[in-house]
Write a structure and sequence with these properties.
The chain is an alpha/beta fold and 235 residues long. The protein is 38% helix and 22% strand. Strand 1, helix 1 and strand 2 form a beta-alpha-beta unit. 41% of the residues are buried. The model has no long low-confidence stretch (mean pLDDT 95).
Length: 235
């Protein structure tokens, strides 16, 4: 059973508000809200004193610095920001050097993380069926800055890895749509002359992402190291 946490929310947009709602529902305290308007003064040792964990959902341009600052302050940090992960290796190394805790996922939806596992298994099977060509499509709201989505990029990377390079969808070949307020839809398609196989996940709201992030944050508190949803779900 988890204990009540004091949480810093870094990124107080729509996801930040949803995370706040889930935290309060689960008996936690939002000790600090950091957003673009107060970031410069908010990221300080004084403000983070007593914070058990920071949950960071911001933009590709600010995520790296936000996560780095948390680790330097000695605060466990969980991030769901995408579009910055070419520098994730630096963050992982800093976390280990500082004896800190860092949790990253491109998508905290429990359903999407089941999809990741199905995707890896399916890619292994399809590796022996070269008559099928693979494709990934993703649809998100018009406010999402990066394309393709971090989730779609992860799906493509895992397909190639699981199939030992025999099933490949390059990042530039992922089809991205930005429509209205769509919280997130991902479709994996294998197509041949004979038939089409499709596996998809369709998020109904941001709540699934927020709930997964809060559950992972509860799990992270008290641990040291670099973690992912594979560690959290352990399946």
């Amino acid at each position: 059973m988890f204990s009540s946490m004091k949480v810093a929310i870094i990124g107080y947009g729509k996801m930040g508000h949803e995370i706040e709602r889930v935290l309060i529902e689960r008996g936690h305290t939002v000790a600090l809200k950091v957003d673009v308007d107060n970031r410069a003064e908010a990221l300080s040792a004084e403000n983070f004193a007593g914070v058990d964990v920071a949950i960071e959902f911001t933009s590709p341009s600010t995520a790296y610095d936000n996560i780095r600052e948390c680790l330097l302050l000695g605060v466990p940090v969980l991030s769901g920001s995408t579009g910055w992960t070419e520098r994730k290796g630096e963050i992982d190394e800093l976390c280990r050097q500082r004896g800190g805790a860092f949790f990253y996922s491109s998508n905290y939806s429990l359903g999407v993380n089941v999809l990741f596992r199905l995707n890896r298994w399916l890619a292994k099977v399809m590796a022996g069926l070269p008559q099928y060509s693979a494709q990934i499509e993703e649809t998100h709201h018009i406010h999402k800055l990066d394309a393709p989505s971090g989730t779609a990029a992860t799906l493509a990377e895992e397909m190639a890895e699981a199939s030992e390079g025999r099933v490949v969808v390059a990042r530039e070949d992922i089809i991205s749509y930005r429509e209205g307020e769509v919280p997130g839809k991902h479709v994996i398609t294998y197509d041949s002359e004979e038939d089409t196989l499709m596996v998809s996940h369709n998020a109904k709201s941001r709540r699934g992402l927020a709930l997964g992030a809060v559950l992972a944050a509860e799990w992270l508190v008290g641990r040291k190291g670099v973690f992912s949803m594979d560690d959290f779900l352990a399946i």
